[in-house]
Amino acid sequence: MPIDRKQVRPVLRGKKLVQSTGEGNTQPLPIDAGWKIGVTPPGFEKIMAVKRVLPGTSMPVNHIVFSDGLAAASVFIEPASNKTTPGLSHQGAMHVYTRKVADYQVKVLGEVPSATVMQIGDSVSFKK
User: Fold this and answer.
1) Closest CA to 54 of 31, 28, 89
2) What is the pLDDT of residues 112-123, one digit of tens each?
3) What is the pLDDT of residues 17-57, one digit of tens each?
4) In the sheet that 94-101 helps form, which strands lie side by side, from edge to edge?
5) SS3 (DSSP) at 120
6) In angstroms, rounded to a whole number, what is the distance separating the alpha carbons of residues 106 and 78?
7) Which domains does the chain have, with CATH numbers?
């Protein structure tokens, strides 16, 4: 079956991508001391750990990224709210795992298997 060229045409052609660091602080800060990720899947290494304000929010979040060189998983740690709903969800290949640790929401997401986001999320702890 021949492939229609419209199906493989880039959708971002001619569009400009802009990375936003959010309002206020333009330089990322080190993550809050005490947060530990106990277990990462084989081959995954921490490639980034910063505290920053995400676009559309006012509170800074701790953001840690793990990668095996092909896939990546992000960990977001922020104060929990009444809207925090623990559990696992997905949209297409993107899996999201949320849990509460003390008064914080830990959210792990990535285009990785559900077991991977759960393994990382369940190993997040806070040690003073």
Assistant:
1) 28
2) 999 999 999 999
3) 455 544 444 567 888 889 999 989 999 999 999 998 888 88
4) 45-53, 60-67, 72-79, 104-110, 94-101, 87-91
5) helix
6) 7
7) 28-126 (3.30.200.100)
Taking Cα atoms as reference points, which of 109, 101, 108 lies closest to residue 126? 101
Beta-bridged to residue 110, according to DSSP, are 73, 95
Token duo for residue 81:
């709210």
Alpha-carbon Rg for the chain in angstroms:
17
Residue at 95: amino acid letter:
H
Burial of 18 from C-beta contacts in 10 A (0-12 / 13-18 / 19+): exposed
Amino acid letter at 17? L
DSSP 4-42: PGGGGS-SSTTPPP-----SS--S-BPPPTTEEE----T
Could you identify the residue written with the tokens 């995954």?
44
